[in-house]
Design a protein that fits this description.
The complex is a heterodimer of chains A (292) and B (255). With 292 residues, chain A is mostly helical. Chain A has a single domain, classed as Orthogonal Bundle (MetI-like fold). In chain A, 73% of the residues lie in helices and 3% in strands. Chain A contains 12 helices and 2 strands. A two-stranded antiparallel sheet of chain A has the order 1-2. The longest helix of chain A is centred in the first third of the chain and has 35 residues. Chain B has 255 residues and is an all-alpha fold. The two termini of chain B are 39 Å apart. The chains are: A mainly alpha (292), B mainly alpha (255). The interface between A and B is large, with 87 and 93 residues.
């Protein structure tokens, strides 16, 4: 009995520091978003005392369905492109000779460690009206002098893929590295073609990596703000930009909360699908597996 | 069966894709011409300008203050949380697990706006301290994740052996578990440091007057300042990144 109390005490002692921190600075602030969505703003850009549902009329603005739809398709397309590029790359990397593989992985990781803003800025330079890409395209007659490469949703897509590709590649590579490639040989011996072996043996084998990749690309992409802000312009705005505009330009925090609530609801969709799929599969619940 | 060459070409394509924009920026950082459209001759003046910009140094020191304190706090909290998750299998730990994982998947902008609303509602003064609080919040999870990865290979019977020989559980943790976990804890700390020094979105929301970190300063230069100076900054950043990664690789190999 005493042993059990002692163990329980040790557990609390180890669990509480981080958990309390996350309750105070993560869980409560998230609840605060929902509360402030129903509060009046005050004239100093703060939060007033009165309750209201007027903030939600913000969503009646006809620009919202457009921006919401753009946010979703840009994020989904980014995820798909990242997966399509990462799956064969991970396949190659996992089977490459160790020394060569280490060099390639290093090359992939370095830009990923460099500053996020600087990577976006680099694309702004490349896509600039007087930038190199435009000159190359005009030279090959693929674009006319007055094509704009910057400030459109395609530019946002390009930079989203650029930013999130390593996030997709690394977990898929980690899964592919553990994959037993002799299973592929076995599939060939049993008469499978190259494509069949790839889709029926390799893809199921790296499923965990694929799921992680989807989660770490799709969800952050839905909340993108800096990328559309810098290369998107008005035609490439996403929900994140609206949150930032209400916060910094209009200084209307209750309206920013309303839009954040909308974003939370969108982000919950993939999270819930993931949770439901996991709950259905394992009753024994591997607690270490988490959402990933 | 001969292997398909396609995957190889895709990997090469990705590497070209990742580096071309950065290389263009670095080449441009030595460009005399003010707007970077064409080559105006070799110069180091943008690096000189950057070096003499006192605001850059101030922002860098702010970033380092925040990153170092964030690293320390999140290393402690994250490691402790990882040990709790590894050691116990209770309902409390499944809740803990959800709490640890959520900040990893929630978009930055939501963490940023929620903390801003929270601080405004409590009338907390915004500045370096609120940036520190926000950074620790997302770094705990990353540290815990890295340490948990290391714990998966940890053989608990060495702890039991120590306890059979008379060590208390906490002594065993201190003398056996922590030293074995040390590489994981340091790797987690390094990740926390990088994430903190690199973070823009969350910092942008919880910063206050006068508390510019390096990414905030870079952003304001991108919006209002000279792009040529940012080219030079990119050159310095990438050189540093390469050096740090190569050094850490060498350190790991020697072990």
């Amino acid at each position: 009995m005493k042993e059990r109390i002692k163990k329980r005490f040790a557990e609390l002692l180890l669990t509480m520091p981080a958990m309390m921190w996350l309750v105070i600075f993560f869980v409560i602030p998230t609840i605060v978003i929902f509360i402030i969505a129903f509060k009046e703003g005050d004239s100093f850009g703060g939060i007033g005392r009165e309750w209201t549902i007027r903030n939600f009329s913000e969503l009646a603005n006809p620009s919202y369905p457009v921006i919401m739809w753009r946010t979703i398709w840009l994020s989904v397309l980014t995820t798909v492109i990242c997966l399509v590029l990462s799956v064969p790359s991970a396949y190659y990397l996992a089977r490459a000779e160790k020394k060569w593989r280490d060099i390639l992985l290093l090359l992939i990781i370095v830009p990923f460690w460099s500053n996020f803003l600087i990577r976006i800025f680099a694309w702004k330079v490349v896509l600039h009206p007087e930038g190199l890409l435009k000159q190359v395209l005009v030279f090959f007659h693929l674009a006319s002098e007055n094509t704009f490469l910057l400030y459109r949703s395609e530019a946002v897509l390009l930079v989203l893929v650029y930013t999130y590709l390593p996030f997709a590649l690394l977990p898929i590579y980690a899964a592919a590295e553990k994959f037993n490639f002799s299973l592929m040989e076995a599939a060939y011996d049993l008469g499978a073609g190259r494509i069949q072996a790839f889709t029926r043996v390799y893809l199921p084998g790296i499923k965990q990596g694929l799921i992680t990749a989807i989660m770490v690309v799709l969800i952050p992409a839905l909340g993108s703000y800096v990328i559309p802000d810098i290369v998107g312009g008005p035609g490439g705005e996403m929900i994140g930009n609206k949150i930032a505009q209400r916060t910094f330009v209009d200084r209307n925090l209750p309206q920013a909360s309303v839009i954040s609530t909308l974003l939370i609801l969108i982000v919950m969709v993939p999270l819930m699908i993931r949770l439901a799929a996991r709950g259905r599969k394992n009753g024994d619940a591997d607690t270490r597996g988490g959402f990933m | 069966m001969n292997r398909s060459r396609t995957p190889f070409y895709i990997v090469m394509g990705i590497i070209v894709f990742l580096y071309v924009p950065l290389l263009i920026v670095i080449i441009n950082s030595f460009n005399m011409s003010r707007f970077g459209g064409e080559w105006g001759g070799f110069t180091l003046k943008w690096y000189g300008k950057l070096f003499n910009d006192r605001d850059v140094w101030h922002a860098l020191s702010n970033s380092l203050i925040v990153a170092l304190s964030t690293t320390f706090t999140s290393m402690v909290l994250g490691t402790v949380a990882a040990i709790a998750l590894y050691r116990f299998r209770t309902f409390l730990q499944s809740v803990n697990n959800v709490f640890i994982y959520m900040p990893l998947v929630v978009p930055d902008i939501l963490i940023g706006i929620s903390l801003l609303l929270f601080f405004v509602a409590l009338k907390v003064h915004l500045g370096l301290f609120t940036i520190y609080l926000a950074h620790v919040t997302f770094c705990i999870s990353y540290v815990a994740m890295v340490v948990m990865g290391r714990l998966q290979d940890f053989n608990y019977s060495v702890m039991e052996a120590a306890m059979d020989l008379g060590a208390s559980w906490f002594t065993a943790v201190r003398r056996i578990m922590i030293p074995i976990l040390a590489p994981g804890i340091f790797a987690g700390g390094l990740l926390a440091f990088t994430l903190s020094i690199d973070d823009f979105v969350i910092t942008f929301f919880v910063t206050g007057p006068g508390a510019a970190t390096l990414p905030l300063y870079i952003y304001s230069m991108m919006k209002h300042g000279s792009p040529m100076v940012i080219n030079a900054l990119t050159g310095i950043f990438l050189t540093f990144t390469f050096i740090i990664i190569i050094i850490s690789k060498k350190l790991l190999e020697e072990k």
